[in-house]
Amino acid sequence: IGACDWLLSLQVAIDFTASNGDPRNSCSLHYIHPYQPNEYLKALVAVGEICQDYDSDKMFPAFGFGARIPPDYKVSHDFAVNFNEDNPECAGIQGVVEAYQACLPKLQLYGPTNIAPIIQKVAMSASQEVHTKEAMQYFILLILTDGVITDMADTREAIVQASHLPMSIIIVGIGNADFGDMQMLDGDDGILRSPKGEPVLRDIVQFVPFRNFKH
């Protein structure tokens, strides 16, 4: 199968942990300004608009992690941003933007910053794709996060397992945190290994600090 025969499926994951700051406060990375997009929205649109040109149906599943969600306010690390777990898809990048803005007032930002669950969720979709005859879909998971992840061992394990599947991960660092751990996940400085020492089959992670590119 040639590379051009693949259909891309872009999936988005947004960090709703408390370290982002209270969305009602203008210092928060999640602050919804009436006239200008916050850094999450800028990054989402910048990357999403490029990727959406390659996504055939322009329907994007969007997930959140690190928040307490209604109705029972349990912490979730892989909830649908539109709160429809059966169909987390949003129509176009604009649909993701609208779902994000609508969900913010309903959430309690919390923590910790665990990203392994969302990697595993998308990996499950990619795995199902491989096990059907027409394995033609390639999954791109765009993770927008403000900082240091707390489940590094599980994340390394999840990435190693995902490297066997038709998927890649783009991590965009939002804000001014120390993103040293993210550089390690990227694998550019050496081969990423699981905690048991298993190497990635291929380098599937690209990390970008948004502050270096936002202008």
From TrEMBL:
Domain VWFA: 7-209
InterPro entries reported in the protein's UniProt record: Copine, Copine_C, VWF_A, vWFA_dom_sf
Gene3D superfamilies from the UniProt entry: von Willebrand factor, type A domain
Record SMART domains: VWA (SM00327)
Protein name stated in the entry: Copine-4
